[in-house]
Amino acid sequence: MRLTLKTVGAAIKAGNAGSNQCDDPKGIPLDLNTVKRTSEAPPRTRSRIFGLKEAPTFYPTEEEFQDPIKYIQKIRPEGEKFGIVKIVPPKSYKPEFALNTEEFRFRTRVQKLNNMEGEIRANVNYLEELHKFHRLHRHPVTKLPQLDKRPIDLFRLKKEVAQRGGYQKVTAQKKWAEIGRFLGYTRKQCTSLSNALKSAYSRVILPYEVWLTQHKQDTSARISSSTAESGRTLNGGKMQQPSKDSPMAIDSIMSLPTTTAEPSEISNDIGSQACEVCHCGDNENEILLCDGCDRGYHLYCLSPPLTAVPKSDWFCVKCLTSAGRDDSHEDRPLYSLYDFQKLCDRFKTDWFANKADPPTEEDCEDEFWRLVDNPHETCEPEYGTDLHSTQHGSGFDAIERAPGNHSSGDLWNLNVLPVLPNSLFTHIKTDISSMMAPWLYVGMCFSAFCWRNENHYTYSISYLHWGETKTWYGVPGRYASKFEDAMRSAVPELFEQHPHLLFELATMLTPGRLLENNVEVYAVDQRPGQFVVTFPKAYHSGFNHGFNFSEAVNFAPCDWIKHDLECVKLYQKYRRQPCFSHDELLVTAARDESSTEDTQWLQEALTEMQQREITSRNKFARHYPKTRQLIEDVELHEDQQQCIYCNCYVYLSRVICSCTTRASCLEHATELCTCNMSKKTLCCRFTDAQLENMVHSITFRTFDPNAWITKVQQTLRAQPAPSLKILERLLSEAAHPSAPVAEAQWLRDYVDHVTAWIDEANKYLIPATRRATQGPDDCTGEGYRRIRELLNDAKKIAFDAPELGALQNTYNTLTQWRQAAERVLRNPLSSTKDFNDVYQLGIAYGSDLPEVEALKKAIEKQDWIETARRALDNPKTAYNTIIDLVKTAQELDVSGGDPVYVSLQEKKKQCELWIDRVETIVERWRNGPIAASAIRAVLDERHHLPPVPSMQVKVDALATHTADSAKEVESMLQRVQALARLNDRPPVREAQQILKRVSALPIAMEGTEELQSEVAKVDAWTARARRLFGVARSGTKSFEAILDGLLENVVPIITASLENRNDVYCICRTVESGLMIECDQCHEWYHGPCVKVSRRDAKTHSSYVCPVCNPNCDVLGKDRIELAVLDELVQGADHLRLLPRSYTELAELTRHMKTYQRAIRAFCQSKMYLGPDDLVRARQYLREIEGLDVAIPEETNLLRQKLQTASSMSTSLPPRRLTSASPSSLPATAFSAVTIQSASPWASRTSGGPLPGRAHCVCRRTLNVSDASSQMIGCDACHGWFHIECVNLTPIMVLSIDQFLCPDCIAIKRRNQPPAPKRIIKLTVKPPAPPSPSRTTPPSSSPTPPALTLTSSSSPKKRKHHHDGHTTSRTDKDRINFSVKKTKLDFFGKN
Fold first, then answer.
1. Which candidate, 1029, 1183, 1194, 1024, places its Cα nearest to that of 1119?
2. Which residue among 214, 320, 826, 1338 is buried most deeply as judged by most CB within 10 Å?
3. How far apart are CA 1085 and CA 1115, in angstroms?
4. Strands 628-631 and 681-684
């Protein structure tokens, strides 16, 4: 019965009896008679799997077999083609198996075959990552989703969805059924195919993919900044983060969640457990250990941080995203060969138990690849691999006991072969026992070794001592790059997780997959007593057919050195640890004077080393000129032997710093530490001269003059035309002092002659694209003739060089081209394409023959004809193009009778005539307008001519400006004629600008006169306003400045008045500032400059009466424009159709003044007579009027009359009362008069009362006798009659008045009174008190004489004013307190 899952568990148990003996020093020895020891090959019954071809098998003769390295070098040209070969020794070669089978013990590793194959391994790893992810997030996937009674391949499902654009796109485009078909499902078998796949993806795959994408984005964003932030230092050295493009990038990202330093790089003194993020061992109780790798992380260092230790298993990011790094190997207990033989035999027997016949080699090979490629069947063989001979012994005799053995001369002994004199391993001082000592391999059926190539690209040789066949597969070194590309394309997921996958020897890919990617794969079967050799760079793998024992070792012939250099550079790129220093090997070989082998390989390698090192030093010096240089040839400490960053050996030169014990190569000097480069030191083992001498010393070491002459003769005899490289090599050897002078000089002249010839030949091999800089004079054919001469000289010189064949090809090509050019030029039917093809070919060949210029001219003429025809057919061809074509035709000697040329000339002449007319029109208008018809004619005519850009610009500009100006004039007239308020009408400035633009045009435009008339009206109105304000204002201010000044004067005063502000003073109605003076009568404060009172005047006078209280004084001297005149000017602008410039300001000024005028009139008409409370407001209005720069005389007089009437009533004698409208009905006593010195013009009317129909009283109303309610009172001085309400009286008050004087009479009486007696005036400096009810008290009620008070804001110290009755703080300097006795004067006229 065939098992679907087979392991060796049962066999292991069966072998326990033998295993238990492993603890004894000696066990049961292996009977070598029970194992196969012959190399007979059974005949094949069928071709190899995958159609693989056999690698060659070589059979050396006894003589050839004497020197293994020499023989391998002999078959190398053939063997390198296959990468792997088999060598069958002569029958006489039968080395004894020297290993003690009783004491030999080894440990095996379990291999899971289906986990070796790349794709299956990636599949299994992905499932493991999914499992860990969901378990970490507490949603474990205990069972894989199934469809059609079998598990869904989640890995393939993920890849198919990714290839189609992702989950969202697949869902939107409904491609789940298509994916199902690719996975092997059909709708007939699965009715819910799409839903099942979509559900499996969204539930299991999608959460992990979303998390993984976000993780990659976060870690990629940290790459650029992590270097500076994480402080990555090691003993003072700074480690650089790998770039995103480097192979180490992903691995570095996965290693650390938030930093880039490796755990191994942290100092060992941290403690038992350090956090992988902060590298600190503090707070050990807060460190969470990963269940996968046992790395520690602080809970608060995680992203996002954790608050408590998870109850279930927890994995770090590295373990989540890098599953499967165990490489499917598992170590097993110790075995002896006897025990392992029983295990192997039983395993193979059980595996092929259902097979009637014993399995053949073909059966084993087919079964092996079936198991590797089957993800559902697991086979776990064991392999005793990588057993080092220094610990376990060797199947060959050891070197130390070889003299006493019959195989003492066996150079094929794998212990001897690596250290043969012609093996380069003898020059390596570093311990490389891993490469120089053999490795043992004990195999069982199906145990395998995965694809790999050898360290440092060395050769390897394997010998099968006894046992079953071992099958090898090899890929030639020339296919190494293709092999690696095929591996990466097959399993990109594995390479993303493990960039060093090819170095890990853990991945298989079937030869069939490699062949599909055009990678050649060869196979060979190794049997007992046979050698298998792998060549440098060749990838190889294989498996065992059963229990066997083999041994393998590396070796390095001279030709390997170039491969080692390539591998060292690869290791440096991947930052992989090399085994030894390539440069140290070369230097050691050069210093070994006892070496007698051919040193040609060493010369070439040393020359490359010298050039590479000097180039690196020069580059370093250019970048860091301030770095100190030191020459020292000393043994280096282990820390300074390799670069801290890329791990390459720094044998020849290194960079060190005092802050660290480590070193770096020259390329990564900045990664050593954070110190400035000027503080670092470049240490070189040799100077540049010493390196050069080392190269020369190899050449001179074994120089023999006679041998050199013979060598030269043999070379020239074997090669009648030797190459320059051979000649230079011979000449370099002739630099030895003992070289024959004559022969060396002859060879030197010979080489110089050849070098000069090659240098000159190279000039003619340069691609002819450089001919673009050559002029027509260069096409003389001189280069062609010189090439022929050089070819003739080469025949005489007799040498071989690549340039010789290239020059001959050039000459032949030019000759053929010349013949083709002549044929094309002679053919009258040749087209432009024919000319151009031959011409471009000549340019490509670098031809300087005269035919090049002839072809160029022919092409230009053909191009001109085609271009001219297109220009004539195209009505949009510009005039400049016509001019250029005519000029080109003249340069190309085009016939004057050519029809195309004639047509061009006609076009040119028509354009010139039209240009003359345009220039005439454009220039003539300056002398006067021209007719529009002339311009239209020019515009119409241009449509039939080629465009003339320069003239068309002028014509188009003229037409455009004319049309635009006409539209502007028409639009302006429409706006002017529209009925609208003056403020909405067009500004006069716009009209003036339009007229200015129109005046610049040569055409008389309709509507311009009307617009000019309107502008003239506005100008007349503006001139009138200017004249008016020129009279009202003197000085040099502009009209606009005068208007601005008026607004600045009027608006604040009126605004303060309407708002009834009590914090302003004076006639300017502003706040306190500077010198201020108080009126003795109204007690109002005034600014000295406003009322023209200086500080000196204030000190020399004892009394002051303001212009409001004394209307006869005119100290202000204002010459103001009246509101009526201003209003008339504004009203006069209503008939204008354009808005004047200053109209808005004048209208605003008038509006404010009229508002103020209406307020005053309303105040005056509110009461017939002003009461005591109204006197303050009336005086306030008068102050404001005095401060205004616009006069309102009627309101001024009305206010003064009101004040005068109120004052008169308060001081006049009691008048008599009238009981009716007529004074005649009152008693006679009522008309007794006060004695008046002069007769009044009313004296004759008092007896009869006021005459009816005449105007009386201060209101000048006509007396209406029939109005009984109108009571009047007569003045006892002037006998005038007044309405009692106009003089602020009531009928009751009249009954108590005995004598009445009108306001005019009271004023006359006051003027005739004698001067008042002297008063004592107290002058003090203090601020004015704010307006209060006490200010309404008449002056006569004041118990003390009024004070003349001065205030100034320019005192040296700021004063604090307290208007609430508190004391005022001031300096003694500001105190002015004096009293003067003198007669009270009316400062601005008598009271």
1. 1029
2. 320
3. 16
4. parallel
DSSP for 1204-1253, written as a single string: HHHHHHHHSPPPPPPSSSSGGGS-GGGG-----SS--TTTTTTTT-SPTT
262 phi/psi in degrees, rounded to 5? -80, 150
User: How remote is the C-alpha of 635 from its chain's centroid?
Assistant: 49
d(CA 135, CA 112): 25
> Three-state DSSP class for 681?
strand
Nearest CA to 452 among 556, 552, 375, 330? 552
> DSSP of 37-58, one letter per residue?
-----PPPSSPPGGGPEEPPEE
Two structure tokens written together for 782: 């001189």
Please enumerate in sequence order all residues whose Cβ is within 8 A of that of 400, keeping only pairs 6 or more positions apart, or say none: none
**Residues 551-605: tens digit of each pLDDT:** 999 999 999 999 999 999 999 988 888 999 999 999 988 887 655 556 778 878 8
| Token digits of residue 521 | 């794969």
Q: How many CB atoms lie within 10 A of CB 377?
A: 14
Least confident of 199-213, 375-389, 1197-1211: 1197-1211
Asked if 655 and 666 touch (Cβ cutoff 8 Å), the reply is yes
Helix (H) or strand (E) holding 348: helix 337-351
DSSP letters along 685-744, please?
SS-HHHHHHHHHHHHHHT--HHHHHHHHHHHHHH-SS-BHHHHHHHHHHTTSTTS-HHHH
Place of tokens 């165990």: 326
Looking at per-residue confidence, does 409 or 1087 come out higher? 1087
Q: Does residue 553 sit in helix, strand or coil?
A: strand
Terminal CA-CA length for the chain: 150
Query: Of 191, 200, 93, which is closest to residue 157 (Cα–Cα)?
Result: 200
Q: Do 456 and 564 form a contact (C-beta atoms < 8 A)?
A: yes
Contact 280, 270 (CB under 8 A): yes
Query: How much of the chain exceeds pLDDT 70, in percent?
Result: 75
Q: Alpha-carbon distance 877 to 888, whole Å?
A: 16
Residue 933's pLDDT is 64
Q: With contact defined as beta carbons under 8 Å apart, do 550 and 110 qualify?
A: no
Q: How far is CA 602 from its chain centroid? A: 51
Whether the predicted model's global pTM rises above the 0.85 cut = no
CA distances from 526 to 492, 523, 545 (A): 33, 10, 10
Task: Decide if 257 contacts 316 (C-beta within 8 A).
Answer: yes
Neighbours of 445 (CB within 10 A): 25
Do the Cβ atoms of 778 and 850 come closer than 8 Å?
no
Q: Is 1342 helix (H, G, I), strand (E, B) or coil?
A: coil
Q: Quickly tell me which residue has 């890929």 as its tokens.
A: 475
Average pLDDT over residues 906-910: 79
Q: Which amino acid is at 1280?
A: G
DSSP 531: E
- Per residue in 371-398, pLDDT tens? 998 877 889 999 998 899 988 999 999 8
CA atoms of 327 and 115, how far apart (whole Å): 8
